[in-house]
Write a structure and sequence with these properties.
heterodimer, A: alpha+beta, nine-stranded antiparallel sheet, 20 strands, elongated, B: alpha+beta, Gyrase A, domain 2, Cyclophilin, 2 domains, four-stranded antiparallel sheet, 5 helices, 33% strand
């Protein structure tokens, strides 16, 4: 079912779902939404499956005309949202009439917003996922970012009468400085004690060289014991590698699957959503936690996602 | 060399790294692949994905179903069994046709000159050997193959190219590899294959997998065109041989 006609593309808009798992050994990255919590919330607000595909909007929003009556929701990075020029709230179900214009203003905080459509976006499943991997030119809409004229299709399901909104206290806030908890390793032993201390005790700035593949950070250089190369091994999102210049690079969802720089630490899963909302000039501080603590936080995070549908408030 | 026993290193909250050694050797890589196969065969609860690389195996797991310690104890059991088994299972050998030199291999002349060889000698040395697929990485379907004879081992370009053509066959130090798609890259490009290495519509999506063996076969421009046409019509069948 044709739902939205693209009038403006925004800065970088792609179709993403929870990601593409099981193909790392073939060099295929996980991809998927940079902020899982916001993607799941956007889906639940229009009574979709949590794993359905949404549009991930980066920094500057696109503009659409509705081709049919439908329901949408927008979550994630705080962006001004208008229907026919009228400001409407994020984090709730919005009823859309055929012909309505959906437009966005500036991103006020965070970096990525998620637009869900009732039924879920209908693009072909490639290797188990609808996520766009632009570098590999597959997934999403022909493996590329949205362009003007694209028609977004959704699965044909009836609209629901109930509208929902997210309780205020569950809406994540994206301050420009934030903490990310990490587990040291797998190659923390390649750094001096001073290097590890530097990494854990200083703020690092997200530079403009940051995208879905990874973030280059600026800050006090992290000192290696000796060589700054390893025999290339596997990478996963959240890994923080440090090349010879001592400036950390955070690996994100579209990164290559192997790399030859030592990894000082890996961000914990619950903090990946906040990292996914980081924008240039934000500052991040890394905080060490134990694997045991991390697994407690992991369980809490999974519960939070799993129970989210019950927490939504029904609107009259 | 390979360590006397594997190192188990935490990789965030949902993965661990089993490090077998810290060098590029076929012995270490064989152990990685054997462990990879064994884990697939026994099926460990909570293990979701395995990524074999040169000298380590990444194990991605679901922390809600298992723990770091439980996986380690299962792997130690598996390792004991592996010790009593022949290390090399039968590998597939795939023949990859390559046109060397000219516009297809812009760095062939440089590689030859660097080593005081003729282009023909470089082609002979590169295509005589059977290479091992150590891992797939960099871009989807890119095989890291090794190792080339010392006589043709050549450092990467000082300045990487912004675009390397699809199918390009390159050398970086003792490694050789094939670009499955157009990508930036610093490898010395000595030839090109018309064979497709990756297609997201295939299952599995990559032609090669870690542990496979690869042999390059020099072809003429006419043969290149012929195979290219077959590939385009999806009528090309890669040649597999027993090792």
């Amino acid at each position: 079912m044709k739902v939205l006609q693209t009038l403006k593309t925004g800065f970088f808009t792609t179709v993403q779902d929870l990601g593409r798992y099981g193909y790392l050994k073939y060099g295929v990255p996980i991809s998927g939404a940079m902020d899982t919590f916001s993607l799941v919330a956007a889906n639940l607000l229009v009574a979709n499956n949590p794993s359905d595909a949404c549009l991930e909007i980066t920094i500057i929003g696109p503009e659409f005309q509705a081709l049919t009556d439908t329901q949408i929701a927008v979550t994630g990075g705080c962006i001004s949202l208008n229907i026919n020029g009228q400001s409407v709230p994020m984090w709730q179900t919005l009823n859309i009439r055929e012909g309505d214009i959906i437009s966005f203003g500036k991103m006020k905080s965070g970096c990525r917003s998620y637009l869900s459509i009732r039924g879920g976006i209908n693009v072909p499943v490639v290797l188990g996922s609808r996520s766009t991997y632009t570098r590999g030119k597959f997934g999403g809409i022909d493996g590329r970012q949205l362009k003007s004229g694209d028609v977004i299709e959704a699965f044909d399901v009836s609209t629901v009468d109930i509208r929902y909104r997210m309780p205020e206290n569950l809406i994540p806030q994206f301050e420009s400085s934030f903490n990310v908890r990490v587990i040291l390793g797998p190659q923390a032993d390649m750094f001096t004690d001073l290097g590890v201390k530097t990494f854990l005790e200083n703020p690092y700035k997200i530079t403009v060289e940051s995208d879905r593949m990874g973030y280059r950070l600026e800050g006090p250089p992290v000192e290696h014991k000796g060589k700054a190369d390893i025999v290339s091994d596997a990478l996963l999102p959240g890994a923080i590698q440090v090349p010879r210049d001592g400036k950390p690079i955070v690996i994100m969802r579209d990164a290559q699957t192997t790399g030859g720089y030592p990894k000082i630490a890996v961000a914990i899963t619950p903090d990946m959503d906040r990292l996914g909302q980081a924008k240039p000039n934000d500052t991040v501080r890394f905080e060490e936690i134990t694997l045991k603590e991390a697994h407690e936080r992991f369980l809490e995070y999974q519960k939070r996602l799993f129970n989210l549908s019950e927490k939504l408030i029904k609107m009259s | 060399m390979s360590y006397t026993s594997a190192r188990f290193l935490p990789f965030g909250d949902n993965a661990l790294l089993v490090e077998i050694g810290d060098k590029i050797t076929s012995e270490i890589n064989r152990k990685v692949i054997a462990l990879n196969e064994a884990i697939i065969n026994v099926h460990i609860k909570g293990v979701e994905e395995l990524v074999p690389t040169y000298r380590s195996l990444l194990i991605r797991y679901n922390p809600l179903e298992t723990t770091h310690e439980q996986i380690i104890s299962r792997i130690l059991e598996i390792e004991k069994i592996l010790e009593d088994m022949p290390t090399e299972t039968k590998a597939r050998k795939i023949v990859i046709p390559v046109i060397y030199g000219g516009t297809y291999g812009p760095d062939l002349n440089y590689v030859a000159k660097t080593h005081g060889l003729t282009e023909e000698q470089v082609v002979k040395l590169h295509s005589e050997r059977v290479y091992r697929v150590y891992m797939i990485g960099f871009v989807a379907g890119f095989p890291y193959l090794g190792e080339v004879p010392d006589e043709i081992a050549t450092p990467r370009l000082a300045t990487p190219r912004l675009k390397v053509h699809t199918g390009s066959v390159g050398i970086a130090e003792k490694q050789t590899g094939i670009y499955p798609c157009e990508a930036p890259g610093g490898w010395q490009i000595i030839g090109r294959t018309p064979v497709k290495l990756f297609n997201h519509l295939w299952q599995p999506p990559a032609l090669l997998k870690p542990g496979d063996m690869v042999k390059f076969q020099p072809i003429t421009e006419a043969e290149f065109r012929k195979i290219e046409e077959l590939v385009q019509n999806e009528a090309y069948i890669p040649r597999f041989e027993d090792t």
